């Protein structure tokens, strides 16, 4: 498949493109949802031996969701800087250690979103978390034991990947 043309058809909070592609002599139109580049982290409080997740309303699922800390990379920011910022904003912790786990596309059939997933060790909470008021974030902090985390039923892919990684570490 070869991309022949890309036209922006929506430019709001997110962006949408219409791509003209050629494959096997056929010209096709395909939509592409430009979601940006995301970061996420399974956060472990090493002092309390608890895993720190978030609970917040997600527009895609139209429901509240318990999930690993996550956010979008700001322009000019590295993934490492971005996830450290997100951890401080969402749950109020300073990162002691950061380990890269995986980089993956969340849904490559129609969206550009790539997620870089980390394992973060923390030991001190220096803020309240809860997200940024100016971004209208309302984030609840959820603390789980390892057993509770592994038993958590969630439809969130990045959290499932983090759970499976943790299970493989045992």
List descriptors.
seven-stranded mixed beta sheet, elongated, 170 residues, 10 strands
Question: What would you say this structure looks like, in words?
Answer:
This protein is 19% helix and 50% strand. It has 170 residues and is of the alpha+beta class.
**How far is the N terminus from the C terminus?**
42 Å
**Roughly how many Å is the radius of gyration?**
18 Å
Report the average pLDDT across residues.
94
Strand content: over 45%
SSE pattern, N- to C-terminal: EEEEEEEHEEEHH
Number of strands: 10
- What is the 3D shape? elongated
Total of helices: 3
Assembly form of the protein = single chain
The biggest beta sheet is recorded as:
7 strands, mixed
Portion of residues in helices? 10-25%
Q: Give start-end ranges of low-pLDDT stretches.
A: none
- Provide the structure class: alpha+beta
Quick overview:
With 170 residues, the protein is α+β, with helices and mostly antiparallel strands. It has helices spanning 79-91, 146-151, 157-169; strands at residues 2-11, 15-23, 26-34, 37-45, 50-58, 63-67, 69-72, 93-105, 114-125, 140-144.
């Amino acid at each position: 498949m070869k991309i022949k043309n890309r036209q922006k058809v929506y430019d709001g909070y997110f962006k949408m493109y219409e791509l003209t592609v050629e494959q096997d002599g056929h010209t096709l139109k395909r939509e592409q949802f430009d979601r940006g580049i995301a970061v996420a982290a399974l956060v472990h409080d090493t002092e309390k031996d608890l895993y720190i997740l978030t609970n917040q309303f997600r527009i895609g699922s139209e429901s509240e969701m318990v999930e690993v800390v996550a956010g979008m990379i700001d322009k000019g920011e590295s993934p490492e800087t971005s996830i450290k910022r997100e951890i401080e904003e969402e749950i109020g912790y300073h990162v002691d250690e950061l380990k890269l786990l995986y980089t993956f596309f969340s849904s490559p059939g129609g969206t550009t979103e790539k997620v870089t997933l980390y394992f973060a060790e923390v030991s001190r909470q220096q803020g309240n978390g809860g997200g940024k008021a100016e971004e209208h974030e309302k984030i609840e902090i959820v603390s789980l034991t390892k057993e509770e985390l592994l038993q958590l039923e969630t439809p969130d892919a990045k959290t499932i990947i983090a759970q499976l990684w943790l299970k493989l570490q045992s």
